[in-house]
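protien #1 (seq + structre)
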Amino acid sequence: MTDLSGKVALVTGSARGIGKAIAVRYAQLGADIVINYSGDEANASKTVAEIVETGRDAIAVKADVTKPADIERIFTEAFGRFGKVDIVVANAGVELVDQPILEATEEQVDRLFAINTKGTFFTLQKAAKYVSDNGRIIYVGSSTTCNPVSGVGLYGASKMAGQYVVGVLAQEIGKRGVTVNSLLPTVIADAGVFTDMDDEHPYHALMENFRPIGGRMGRAGDVADAAEYFASDLAGWVSGQHLLVSGGAQQ
């Protein structure tokens, strides 16, 4: 079992969904946690409470990742509470599906690129600056970047830049023993636009024929499993990689 005792993990966009699953998993493995949220204070507080129940410490920091100064403040508060940050998960993002490129608006482009591209870039930049030597940086990207898929062109494009930054950072800070990797989750039933999806939603039937393993949609716990590996000592020789978490499908 992975042991993260004595580690401090900072996870952006972790009030719910994938970010929460990763944060809670890291706490269960012994890490203290910095939760970040932009507006969902109620769920952020619940997540902190769940982490405290595991016996670990946690704080919630409200910050907008589209503002570099806010990202800086997340790290400042993390250092103020814990004195260091060993693991950073750049998870904050926003989804948009079933949106043809021909119908995309300037407002949609600005919003997705502000959060998914600019926000990710500066989160990774700050992570590279502040993470401990031999630390871990993980970007939660999207399986839509693996192959062109109708209806997610804008979303996939906004998530692509983060993967490139991961590859470059792996080279630029590797001498410090820091690994930098991406997780590329598929459709996740309990996250993003699929949060609170009921059992009758048509996506469930679609995934039965689309996912070779299990015939189901992905779960936040599936992504947390992969995030556990990247945070562990076992992944100390793995960097600049992009792991597709898709149940065997190619996107």
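ok now protien #2
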Amino acid sequence: MLAPDLSGRTALVTGSARGLGRAFALALARNGASVAVHYHSSEAAAHATAEEAREAGAADAVPVQGDVTHPETVDELFADVEENLGSVDVLVNNVGDFAPAHWRDLSYDDWIRVMHTNYTATYLTCKRALPGMESERWGRIVNVGYASGEKGLVSPKNFPYFAAKTGVLMFTRMLAADTQDDGITVNAVSPYVVENSDEFPDDLPRGRPADYEDVTQAMLFFCDEDSGYISGENIEVDGGWLPEDV
């Protein structure tokens, strides 16, 4: 298991009260980071995850609330983290809603919600995190993508999700190019199906979905001090998935 030394670092994981985000937060905690457990509405779960993070080895852990799709609330969220834990050194953009319906059946509100939580939120949190990272000349940003975004695969369902995650990969690479002299790396981790999914497709590689540890190991790799020359990359955590009809 990867064990980067993150003591003295502050990590913010968006959407980390539950699920994969929670696994990211606990993995960073086990490696000594102070962890901000972000939530939008799951307050009780965020407090529980923060307590688990402290027990797991975090220097400190606090729950922080905010809507990451609006500039004002993102600024308030970061100010809360900075007041309690210090400037953000590690940012993991995990937030992202689904809309598993045919695109013709989606409402405008569904489209906007999925695009904003996956794509706009990534832009806003990265923009807010960068000044502190640039000041310290050290930073790690890991954005969560989706395996089909790299492969260019499409489906009549989940249009806004696929489009947003493909945009996240392009944004990741553009931001990596813009920060190559700042001591900051920007990378992506793109799973296919993870263990907390509501339903599993028939074409699961290796006979199972990815478990949380499969994905967190890729995230930790990008956070390691020794990964400082790797930026603009994407790790697909998909077991080698390729649909049979491609």
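The helical segments are 19-30, 43-56, 71-84, 108-136, 147-151, 159-178, 212-223.
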